[in-house]
Amino acid sequence: MKTRVIGFFLAVLMSAGGALADGARGSVTNLPIPRFVSIKSDECNVRRGPSLSHKIDWVFKRRGMPVEVTAEYGHWRRVRDRDGAGGWVHYSLLSGSRTVIIEDDLVALHIRPDPETQISARLEMGVIAKLGSCTADWCRLNAGGYKGWAPKTVLWGAKPDEIRE
Predict the structure, then answer these.
(1) To the nearest whole percent, how much of the chain has pLDDT over 70?
(2) Is the preceding peptide bond at 34 cis, omega within 30 degrees of 0?
(3) What is the pLDDT of residue 23?
(4) Which residues of the chain have pLDDT under 50?
(5) What contacts 3, CB < 8 A, 6 or more positions away?
(6) What is the pLDDT of residue 22?
(7) How far apart are CA 161 and CA 12, in angstroms?
(8) Domain ranges of the chain
(9) Which long-range contacts (CB under 8 A, 24 or more apart) does 7-12 make?
(10) What CATH topology corresponds to 100-156?
């Protein structure tokens, strides 16, 4: 029985569109793997495998939480959070709307992508912010009605080399 289970998961990994290779694309969506998305609902079941018959390991309870898609299988996406915890989530519970989590305490939001500019707000660790444009070192965020620029180094949910317009 264990051989079949291992074989099944190996088949899932192999059919996930080469998710482990750099520059890989999902076999279902043809979108880049890995990529960031966000949780669409207030509750999102995370399962051990890509079907409703698989056990629920845990539940995301925070709408807008950024997660990284690492594989695809039919209507299912394997995701992980900033702590590396993850599993399989039905695609209908995910949104392409990008968010990030603040990883340092009291991160300054600047009015321009320059540490010498005026600060519009400070964000606490764990705040989820909507992701706007990104330069090589900064990203524009919107959180709690406040807008501004924060260094990428204090964010989880944007790749270090990602440029967004």
Answers:
(1) 87
(2) yes
(3) 75
(4) 1-20
(5) none
(6) 60
(7) 29
(8) 2-97, 100-156
(9) 8/49, 9/49, 12/49, 12/50, 12/71, 12/73
(10) SH3 type barrels. (2.30.30)
Phi-psi region of 28 (alpha: psi -120 to 50; beta: other; left: phi over 0): alpha
Residues 6+ apart with CB under 8 A from 53: none
Q: Is 92 helix (H, G, I), strand (E, B) or coil?
A: helix
**Which CATH number does 2-97 carry?**
2.30.30.40
| Residues 52 and 18 sit within 8 Å (Cβ to Cβ) | no
Q: Is the whole model's pTM more than 0.70, yes or no? A: yes
Whether 2-97 shares its CATH topology with 100-156 is answered yes
**Alpha-carbon separation of residue 148 from 2, 12, 23, 65, 98 (angstroms):** 52, 41, 31, 20, 16
